[in-house]
Amino acid sequence: MLKVHILVDNRVKKRGLIAEHGLALWIEKDDKSILFDTGQSSVFCHNAKAMDIDLRATDYIVISHGHYDHCGGLQYFPYQDKAPAIYVHPDAFLKKVSSPNQNKPLQKVGIPFEIDHQDWIKQRVIYTKRPLEIAKGVLVSGEIPCTNTFEEIPKNFYIEKDGEIVRDMMLDEQMLIIEDNVEIAVFLGCSHPGIINCLKYAQKLFPKKNIKLLVAGMHLENVSPIRLQMTIQHMLDMNIQKVIPLHCTGFMEMCEFKRFLKERCSLLCTGDTIEI
What we know:
By secondary structure, the chain is of the alpha/beta class. It has a single domain (2-275), classed as Ribonuclease Z/Hydroxyacylglutathione hydrolase-like (Metallo-beta-lactamase, Chain A, 4-Layer Sandwich). The protein has six helices and 17 strands. A hairpin with a 2-residue loop joins β2 (24-29) and β3 (32-36).
């Protein structure tokens, strides 16, 4: 049994819950519970309580990448003395900035706290550059290779490395993959390397296993129509059973997913639960 609760998303419809620009998921697989991302603030804690989810039961914390809207909430985890291991790529802690165009000043978009000032986090971090099985049938992918020609990493993100501002190639983005019988479920924060690149890598890591569930922010807002069409066509060709687009996918792009994927796509938000 696999159950996914959406703790944080950009949208909310249910009374008593709070939305924010970000993502956090509570994933239950058999007897294990995984906190995947933490949004940008303590909102995930408020929503967990409202949804009757006990964060003390967290067995693993997985951070998809080092942007504020995915890991800013980590500093507010309420049970720090009993917190589990935190799986994250080392580049997530680099200084990250972004600008919508060359005429706008750079804005900080990275982790909004210093890890050296958060001893409980520093003591629990496990760095993941390569695929790592954190529990039976539960894999953190590490770095995701870019192998197709129609997806490109966003050009307006930068990192400070060795004293220089250079383009951020998003090496820190990683996905969570969970085996469920003879199939897999894939979870992504923003899919900066390209959602199809990510899914192709998941298939490489789990050959001959169909993707039964995709829950992801996909960073597709304002991409070219041809890229969106190719993305949807690849998903149809992959025969993904259930697609849940969230967070940074883009509203119009979500509507296109629904139009073509029909019942295979569900437009969910904060407070919703997927059981599969």
